[in-house]
Amino acid sequence: MSEENFEDELDTTLPAGPRTPMAARFRGYLPVVVDVETGGFNCATDALLEIAATTIAMDEAGFLYPDHTQFFRIEPFEGANIEQAALEFTGIKLDHPLRMAVSEEHALGEIFKGLRKAIKSAGCKRAILVGHNSSFDLGFLNAAVARCGIKRNPFHPFSSFDTATLAGLAYGQTVLAKACQAAGIEFDGKEAHSARYDTEKTAELFCGIVNRWKEMGGWDDFYS
Description:
42% of the residues lie in helices and 20% in strands. By secondary structure, the chain is an alpha/beta fold. Strand 4, helix 5 (134-148) and strand 5 form a beta-alpha-beta unit. Helix 6 (163-171) crosses helix 8.
């Protein structure tokens, strides 16, 4: 399906009449911030080791804020490649007794269940992934969805919002830690490379950039 056809299909599934502010802001999509920690860079062969997802909500004045975070440690799929350098970079210890990892299928099932509720509550019809270098996270998410045979993926299959790009525009910084510092967001380097921490900081950054744009007059009509 082409991007144009996919967008047209989404428009026909949106309810008639005035949209909610969130649905109007992003054409029926609910932004959901996702971060993954992995065993390498190849989404087809390398293990998914952690995943976190933070939903984004909107207050009565039209400003965004991070809402709810789900986080899971993941058991590597059978035959997955795991680079030692990746483990050293993330600090993940696969044999830690308190790691309490679950299968990809369980983690995605729980995350998607929560996202469907959030999408419905926001008056949207689908989620769109927000990530720092979002193509990486979307690639690993889609690969895991395919491995698990999940038919109802709430995310747009190929579009995403990239906070590295947005932060480069807004602050001249593309590294997450430096972008957060430029935005006045506290960032603890010792906590970085945990999917939960990076997701929540990316959510703060995304909301801050979108809200700053609104304050500058770049977005005012919720129902356009």
